Amino acid sequence: MRGAKEGEYMDNLKQFWTETLNRYGENSDDKIVFDSIFTQTEAKELQNNELIITIESVFNKTFIEDASEQLAEFFYEVSGIKATIKVMSNQEYDNMNKAKAPVVEVKEEVEDFDDHLSADLTFDNFVVGNCNRIAQNAALAVALKPGTYNPLFLHSNSGLGKTHLLNAIGNYVKTKFPGKRILYTNAEAFVNDYVEAIGNNTIASFNRRYRSVDILLIDDIQFIANKEGSMEMFFNIFNTLQHSGKQIVITSDKPPVELKGMENRLVSRFRQGLTVTIDNPEFETAKAILKKKIESRMIDYPIDEEVLDFIASHFNKDVRDLEGAVTTLLFYKVVCGQNLDHISLDFALEAFDNPDNTTTITKKEATPDTIKETVASYYNLSVTQLTSKSRTNNIITARHIAMYLVRELVPDISYIQIGQEFGGRDHSTIMKACSKVKKKMKQDPNYKTAINDLMERLS
User: Which residues take part in binding ATP (predicted)?
Assistant: First the structure.
């Protein structure tokens, strides 16, 4: 290693040793010995998991050697590198170098750096709706000015666009700030890289790769939970990047406080920045995503608008659900509709109800339980939330609609029985809720559309 690369390597090594000495000094009982002897040491090189430390006087070597095990522990804490410490005088070190050329562990070239970004995942083709607008805005703010929110923590169920936004950030920065070094990875790859580095004795290279980036984009961080070594390593990398003003963006299937098996200090770091959730797509966003997916298929026949409405209403759990519905529909067109010049709703219903297809519509019997389950799913809630005492607006809306649907669809059920189904509420509460729903259906077309859609699902 020569020139700039050698200088960068030595800077990192010296920084690790400085931080090691700082930690040792904070725990030292003899400040005079520490200030007089330990602060005069230098980290010269790291090879074969042996860290060579030099000191001016050969007579002072024993002080450092006696503390070598504790120093090695602190060195591991700040660098993630397990190494034994070898102490030499400056003269001994010079004599050793005369006998052989120095060996440097880090061999990777900067030019070989791979950011692992998917070039086709950009802000331009990310469909924005109410369910993800805040997340998209936060991601764009970070891309425009890295460090704005640090870390940015995005969480949602699978298939709702977290990976797309991570790559969109990276691709935007790559275009606008070509000098920035960006790395996209997922937590599973991080763990595998770390294990491989331990096995191959290339921890220094691993550290240099992750600590040298300007923007770290890491997907599915929940994967490192309960993996102590990986969490320790990521914690140290996180601190190094954050203290250097580098941008970190993390995604997960849960918010930080719900990450089981994750160290508290990591959870605390995650919560320091901005945490944003992405919800399941509502009808309008699902339909916009659907149109974008169909457009990318470049089909040469039209699909009726009511078909798109049907798919957006019934397959809006996540983006992959929408993609699966499109794939099923287009495949069925190839197999059974070669002579059709367009796809109609009748044909689509036939495609989705075909027993050979994996994407099917599940018909539910209209019972209080199935109605509660359907409404809860429609509004991305749990049945427990629906029947709870919560007064949150979205839960109240869903609860009233569910009460109304039970009254309308379940034969001979009384207001008292409905009240029992919804947490033991008084029959007068049910009557008022049903009355409010009927009134709002007349006033709000979107509200009426939602209830009609639910009735269709339950029919």
Answer: 159, 161-163
- Does domain 368-458 correspond to CATH entry 1.10.10.60? no
246 annotated as a binding-site residue: no
Q: Report residue 67 as tokens.
A: 């503390």
Residue 241 token pair:
């990047």
Nearest alpha-carbon partner for 274 in 307, 235, 248:
248
Residue type, 392: T
Mean pLDDT of all residues belonging to the chain: 85
Q: Is 170 annotated as a binding residue?
A: no
How many C-beta atoms surround the C-beta of residue 50 within 10 A? 11
The residue whose two tokens read 């001979």 is 412
For residue 326, with 0-12 CB atoms within 10 Å meaning exposed, 13-18 middle and 19 or more buried, which class applies?
Answer: buried
1.10.246.80, 3.40.720.10, 1.10.1040.50, 3.30.300.180: which CATH number matches 3-99? 3.30.300.180
Q: Which long-range contacts (CB under 8 A, 24 or more apart) does 372-379 make?
A: 372/402, 372/406, 372/421, 374/454, 374/457, 374/458, 375/401, 375/402, 375/405, 375/454, 376/402, 378/450, 378/453, 378/454, 378/457
CATH fold group of domain 283-345: Helicase, Ruva Protein; domain 3 (1.10.8)
Report pLDDT for 32: 76
What is the pLDDT confidence band of residue 10, given thresholds at 50, 70 and 90? low
Q: Where in the chain is the domain with CATH 3.30.300.180?
A: 3-99
User: Higher pLDDT residue, 317 or 448?
Assistant: 448
Residue 53 pLDDT grade (very low, low, confident, very high; cuts 50, 70, 90):
very high
Q: Is 293 exposed, middle or buried (0-12, 13-18, 19+ CB in 10 A)?
A: middle
419 among the known binding-site residues?
no
CATH fold of 133-277 reads Rossmann fold (3.40.50)
Three-state SS string across 290-304, please? HHHHHHHHCCCCCEC
Give per-residue pLDDT as tens, 98-144.
Answer: 766 554 444 444 445 788 899 999 999 898 888 889 999 999 999 99
pTM, to two decimals: 0.55
Q: In this structure, are residues 421 and 406 in contact, taking their beta carbons and an 8 Å threshold?
A: yes
